[in-house]
Amino acid sequence: MRRLSRRQQIGAAVLTAVALLFISLDFAGGSLRGSRGGATGALGSLYRGTDGVLGPARRFLQGIPDVGSNRTEIAKLEGENTQLRRQVAAGASDTATARRLKSLQLQADSASWTVMPARVVATGPGAGFQWTVTVDVGSREAVVLGQTVTDGFGLTGRVVAVYPTTSVVLLAADPTFGVGARDTRTGALLLASGAGSQGLTAVLLDGKANSGSSVTSAVGSSVRVGDRLSTGPAGQTTFVGGLEIGVVTAVTMSTDGSVRVALRPTAPQTGLNLLGIVLKANRSTPRPPIGTGSGTDR
User: Fold this and answer.
1) Which residue of 82, 96, 150, 248 lies most exposed, with the fewest beta carbons within 10 A?
2) Could you tell me which residues come within 8 angstroms of residue 217 by beta carbon, excluding any fewer than 6 positions away?
3) Cα distance between residue 110 and residue 54, in whole Å
4) Which of 1-10, 251-260, 269-278 has the highest mean pLDDT?
5) Angle 259-262-267 (CA atoms, 0-180°, nearest 5)?
6) Rg (CA), the chain
7) What is the CATH number of domain 178-265?
8) Phi and psi at residue 152, in whole multiples of 5°?
């Protein structure tokens, strides 16, 4: 920072003394308005001369009290921006799911079914099961025990408890969950069940091991890694038929000769938001509130 010269220092002292004199006379009632204006102009010139040197430091010191409030405002704006991005992402996900549920409804029309959209309002153990979600529709919307639940792309689970305005859905990953399945490529029949955080597993009915990563059933069909399993066939499961359950990721043989299949669920089992409950039409009146039911389809 450039220091003032001795001449500038002396000039500043003199002008300050003159200014104080004029102020004193002005308070005393003296008529020195013109002289005072001249002194003010001189002091203004001195101020403009020194402000180029002292100005940046002065403005920095003046801004210090506002730093805390500025940081708070920035943090608030960043939080609002993050929340808006989440809302946009959730809205896009809901739009895609709603479109899929509408498509599913068109397919269900021929069977006189209705797909009831349902929003997830709670996640966690419920109705005596580990893997469940609670949705915001219940007996008032004709939801009943045992109905199939989907995310619009695959099997999510089934209704295990119904109340007037809410329902509990048992997710397919729950260890007590079971559903009859069919290999969409070969027609082989399996029984799929939940495996918690590991997804799903399935057992080939009346199957025996074969070489490699495939299994040959009693009817000559095979199950391979990459095959897709869906609900069905009709009469073999209480679920809506044709909903995809998952994709085969591994095929192994147990010591007793039975074949076990590991599945990656088609419908996610966590982070659920908008679901669809498949309602059967032509029911007379909704059932009253129901307690818990069995989560296994046999």
Assistant:
1) 82
2) 186, 188, 189, 204, 205, 206, 207, 208, 223
3) 83
4) 269-278
5) 140
6) 38
7) 2.40.10
8) 95, -15
Report the C-alpha gap between 186 and 155 in whole angstroms: 20
**pTM of model > 0.70:** no
Q: Specify whether the CB–CB gap between 185 and 230 falls below 8 A.
A: no
What is the C-alpha separation between 44 and 143, in angstroms, rounded?
Answer: 83
Helix axes 33-63, 6-27, angle to 10 degrees: 120
Return the structure tokens found at 297.
Answer: 């389809």
What are the pLDDT digits (tens) for 135-180?
A: 999 999 999 999 999 988 889 999 999 999 999 999 999 999 999 9
SS3 track for 58-70: HHHHHHHHHHHHH
Domains 80-170 and 178-265 share a fold: yes
Measure Cα distances from 137 to 78, 126, 146, 180, 275 in Å. Answer: 35, 16, 14, 26, 11
Write down the domain spans for the chain: 6-65, 80-170, 178-265
Distance CA 107, CA 115 (A): 10
Question: Alpha-carbon distance 254 to 159, whole Å?
Answer: 32
Q: Which fold has domain 80-170?
A: Thrombin, subunit H (2.40.10)
Q: Are 194 and 186 in contact (CB under 8 A)?
A: no
